[in-house]
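BACKBONE GEOMETRY TOKENS
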Amino acid sequence: MTNLVESIFIKNSPEHTVPRLSIGLPVYNGENYLEQSLKSILSQSYRDFELIISDNGSTDGTEAICRKYANKDSRIRYERYEENRGASWNFNHVVHVARGEYFKWAAHDDLLDQTLVEESITILDENPDVVLCYSGSKIIDAENHIIRQVPISENLNHKQPHLRFAASWRYPPNLVVFGVVRTEAMRKTHLLGPYSSSDRILSAELALLGRIYGIPRYLFSFRHHPAQSTGVSFPSRKGRSAWFDPKKKGERSFPHWRLLKEFYASIADSKSNLGLVERIFCYRSVMRWCIRHYRLLAWDLVKQ
């Protein structure tokens, strides 16, 4: 039985219209930057979308902010749950309930330039072999100051799957998976697993399914701040396991060995039409990853 407390869903007009894009915003105690994020989403030049906000049992002012915006904008569906089920469940939930042909994750602390969605959907409409479109990223601090800029990766857009696959574990996955993706392609993946760095595996799975197009301009702002759930509040991969799934708090983990296992599984389970040669090249890429990260694999064993 679900523990959904309440859902606010005001239908788009006209009634029964299905939007082309679903934006899923999973949130837990996000009052600090949530309004900024909502304003950047709702001010997009592309208007044909629904915004699904899934509140994972927030205990701060998140609920009040979400209700205020849901009552003002008919594109917003707000769902609130009694308990925090973890980031993996919440991120995956908004994918499962999405109705649009295209999907985009949004975070409560990131910002979108006004034309990001429109430009991304134009690329996807014109290029059937592109499964996801993202842009160059600005890394910003708590006060919206730019810390640095991250350009796109040309190899993620390569025609050969094994080169895209190799590029996926060299490029920051959190900057890719927040792009606009074909919903059908996203649902062919395992989504976010309940373990640290599962976004890296998701990025790899999407790279095997098709080209990942990068808009060279910097249209996405990824915030780095002291209250950030990953990388700051949970600096170690082992510690971040509890953020992905609270039930794993205190459990022994082998985060880099788990990544190794999932890299192999992403190739073996891929729903793309990978030929034998491409699969061999992909497996070779995983072996290179092992060589590159052998110290971290050993450290997993030593620190248990």
Q: What stands out?
A: The beta strands are 4-9, 21-27, 49-55, 76-81, 102-105, 111-112, 130-140, 146-150, 180-182, 211-223. Residues 1-108 form a domain with the Spore Coat Polysaccharide Biosynthesis Protein SpsA; Chain A fold (CATH 3.90.550.10). The chain has a mean pLDDT of 90.
